[in-house]
Design a protein that fits this description.
Rossmann fold; 7 helices; 21% helix; seven-stranded mixed β-sheet; alpha+beta; globular
Length: 428
């Protein structure tokens, strides 16, 4: 049995309480302040991270971890509150790790998210480029159409906790009878599912913990990963798109802001003046099909064969005849395309880890006129942005969307033009 790692007591002993003023929020949604170290290091400023503390606040915090150049601490008391501090809607806020910003007014959330993207643009990508105001969600609460509560092994005799990881923990689960950022339909179903799971657990139905999926599609909630679900996305003009996919598949989880989000991506792609569009992480076809009317031809490329089948089916169901979908091998994503790169705009929406080196090599080899880069993690997006800049692309617009109110997460869309091209004018 391995020994527990000894606590590093430099510069603070375990659970020492310190007072500090919070200067800013990190892009992880954590308050950051600095304190002056005592003793031999007097005069040196030391960074302390305090979750749920807000900029401008004077707080008391209890240190629980020291790193090489900063410490982490729990919030003990707000000595002087920020004017933007509000009462959280959820009684579990501060314990449940799902939300970081319920104590911050929504307009302030948008202000800070814009600032955080701007800091990443400046400090990671080295650009002086204005970040547009964040487009907020029409619903700051009750917006999330998919949640995945967890539960552990029911072997300790206590009532089974069914919910989300506790703030700062990788294993401890907070019992969550209701999630205020989820839709009402999900919360109604969650009550029933929790009762069913606890009954089965009491009867010995689980040997280990598990994860529950609840997905709301138009008020109908499924809990089966393999169920087929359908979302409507009204991007106008004409009838809304109807997109079908499996409940377990990736699909944006805020249907209330999704129309504006998809329209923006389409309009940015159209404004490049290209005649062809490639959706390089197309999934079930959202961006490709939302943009098809603005281009002569559209192609979606996806490594998941099942997602490609849904994308083809969705094109047919929506009467879209100029879109083709290809199950591309990861090593040759653009090999089967016959679009001329200089007359093509590529939309990319990679996973949180961003684009891998192989994909970027293929993309730059294809040489599109422009790229509309959609990301759920601006930090990895900025890392990739540096590769685009090195290849001669210019960032022309940065537009964040708040698909995840009350949390640190957001989506960011960056439009990139190849050297010698500008929006809707062709070669310059």
């Amino acid at each position: 049995m391995s020994k527990k790692k000894k606590f590093n007591d430099r510069p603070f002993p375990y659970h020492q309480e310190i007072d500090l003023t919070v200067a800013t929020l990190t892009n992880l949604g954590i308050g950051l302040g600095r304190v002056e170290l005592p003793g031999a290091e007097a005069g040196r400023k030391w960074v302390v991270m305090v979750a749920f503390a807000l900029p401008g606040e004077r707080v008391r915090a209890r240190v629980f971890r020291n790193h090489a150049n900063y410490s982490e601490a729990d919030l003990v008391e707000v000595i002087k509150a920020s004017p933007a501090r509000i009462e959280p809607k959820c009684p579990l806020f501060g314990r449940c790790g799902g939300c970081q910003y319920q104590n911050l007014g929504y307009e302030e959330q948008l202000t800070w998210k814009r600032r955080q993207v701007g800091e990443l643009v400046e400090h990671m990508a080295g650009l002086t480029l204005e970040v547009s105001p964040v487009i907020g969600s029409p619903r700051p609460f009750g917006y999330r159409s998919k949640i995945t509560p967890h539960f552990g092994s029911p072997d300790d005799g206590r009532e089974l906790a069914i919910g989300f990881l506790r703030q700062g923990s990788r294993f401890d689960i907070v019992d969550v009878p209701r999630c205020d950022i989820a839709t009402e339909a999900i919360n109604a179903r969650l009550t029933d599912e929790r009762a069913s799971i606890r009954t089965r657990a009491a009867e010995g139905g689980f040997e280990r913990g598990s994860t529950l999926l609840l997905r709301d599609a138009g008020g109908i909630v499924t809990t089966s990963h393999e169920d087929r679900v359908t979302e409507e996305v009204d991007i106008g003009p004409g009838k809304p798109l109807r997109l079908s996919f499996l409940a377990r598949d990736f699909f944006q989880n805020n249907p209330f802001i999704l129309p504006a989000f998809a329209r923006y991506v389409r309009d940015q792609a159209k404004a490049t003046g290209a005649h062809y569009l490639v959706d390089a992480y197309c999934g079930s076809g959202l961006f490709a099909l939302a943009s098809a009317s603005a281009f002569e031809r559209v192609a979606g490329v996806e490594v998941s064969a099942s997602s490609v089948e849904f994308a083809r089916e969705n094109a047919t169901a929506n009467g879209i005849s100029n879109a083709a979908f290809l199950a591309g091998d990861a090593s040759a994503i653009f090999a089967s395309l016959d679009f001329p790169g200089l007359d093509t705009v590529v939309v990319i929406d990679p996973p949180r880890k961003g684009c891998d080196a192989s994909f970027l090599r293929q993309l730059f080899g294809f040489g599109p006129r422009a790229v509309v880069y959609v990301s759920c993690d601006p930090a990895t997006q900025m890392r990739d942005l540096m590769d685009f800049l090195a290849e001669g692309y210019t960032a022309t617009a940065v537009q964040p969307f708040d698909l995840f109110p009350q949390t640190r997460h957001l989506e960011c869309v960056i439009t990139l033009a190849r050297a010698g091209y500008c929006q809707a004018q062709g070669p310059s």
